[in-house]
Structures are given as C-alpha cells and as structure tokens.
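Regression test case RT-17, inverse folding.

Input:
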C-alpha cells in the first residue's frame, strides 16, 4: 500500500506512522529523517541537499523528489510506503505523482488528519524537552514526575521558542497557506481520506484502519 499522511503540525502524523508501519509492513518515510540521512550518505543528491541545508535554504523540489525516488527504490519499499511531510505544496505533489508514474506506481490513499486549531496549539505548546538527554515530555499527556525536571537527568526542562503559542499559530498559518491546498488537490484525484484526528493514538488508528479498509 502506498500511503501519504496529511495534516497540520501536531495532527499526529508521526504517532500514526509507527503502528501503520508495523501493520502494513512498509517503511515510514519522514522527509526530515530522509534529508538528514541524505546528508550523511555522501551521494550526489545528498551532497546537493546538504549544501542547501547548511546554508539555511530550502532544499529545491527536484532534489527532494530525487531523494524520495532513491528511497522508494530500496527493497524495503517494494510493497509500499508511508510518506510523512511530503508533499507540502501542489508543485511537489505534481512532481511526486509524475515520479511515481514513471516507476509504474501510484498513491493509494491520502489520509488527512483533521484537528481543530485550538487542539493543535494545546498539543504543540505543551511540549517540553530535556536539554541534556533530549527526552520529550508534555505538560498534559506525559508530564515529568517532578515539576519541570527531567525524570532521567534531573535538569530543568526547556520550552522551545517554536513551541510557544504564537509561534505555533504562525506555523499553522504557514501550513494553511502552503499545504492545505493539497486537500483539494488529492480530493479531486479521488485519493483523499479525511478523518477526525482527535483522541488517543489507538482511537485514531482505528479510524485510519477503517478508511484503509481494515
């Protein structure tokens, strides 16, 4: 099965990808992870991506699509994939669909996790992390045992600037401007599977399984 997970920051794409990966037996391909791996790999495309990343510029669409194509050519993706974080724009979606067609493949489903903005802000702005070991926490869902101190290191947890409410709302505005049009794009192709992204991971997973046919 070839699957794309679509949703705003904090919608739960990563949380759903892990159990879906195990259930479907296909790799979870996160664009961020893929770019970091490409930088380490030293391939031509990897070096090209690293040049942009190191200078703080966005990696061009043709480079990202090329990296996705390389990743999908690996044996573990022969039975399918779960794409998370790509495509982000209609231009990227066009490039992805053309690349898949060249390789005799297509997208089976685009699962859109729909979560209200106030819930997304609460999810993201509640995140904290340990500056020493990197362990993540959430003030509501996974709080530390001792007030604002890491359970492992005992050091004070940090609240990243991009997780503060106004920063989160700006990220969501950017998503609406750049990525939300993909909803119409994939709906027009008959691929969109919208569902309620609120609830526990297991509850949302049941909804995902239902729209994928069990």
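Golden output:
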């Amino acid at each position: 099965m070839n699957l794309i997970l679509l949703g705003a920051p904090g919608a739960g794409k990563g949380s759903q990808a892990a159990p879906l990966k195990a259930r479907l037996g296909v790799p979870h391909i996160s664009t961020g992870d893929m770019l970091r791996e490409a930088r380490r790999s030293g391939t031509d495309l990897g070096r090209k991506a690293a040049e942009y990343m190191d200078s703080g510029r966005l990696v061009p669409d043709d480079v990202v699509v090329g990296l996705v194509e390389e990743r999908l050519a690996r044996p573990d993706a022969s039975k399918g994939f779960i794409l998370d974080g790509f495509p982000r724009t209609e231009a990227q979606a066009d490039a992805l669909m053309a690349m898949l067609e060249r390789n005799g493949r297509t997208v089976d489903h685009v699962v859109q996790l729909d979560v209200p903005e106030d819930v997304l802000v609460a999810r993201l702005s509640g995140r904290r992390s340990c500056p020493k070991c990197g362990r993540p926490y959430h003030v509501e869902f996974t709080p530390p045992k001792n007030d604002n101190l890491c359970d492992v290191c005992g050091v004070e947890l940090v609240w990243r600037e991009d997780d503060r409410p106004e920063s989160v709302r700006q990220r969501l505005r950017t998503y609406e401007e750049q990525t939300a049009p993909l909803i119409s794009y994939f709906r027009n192709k008959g691929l969109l599977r919208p569902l309620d992204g609120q609830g526990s991971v297991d509850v949302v997973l049941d909804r995902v399984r239902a729209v994928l046919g069990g």
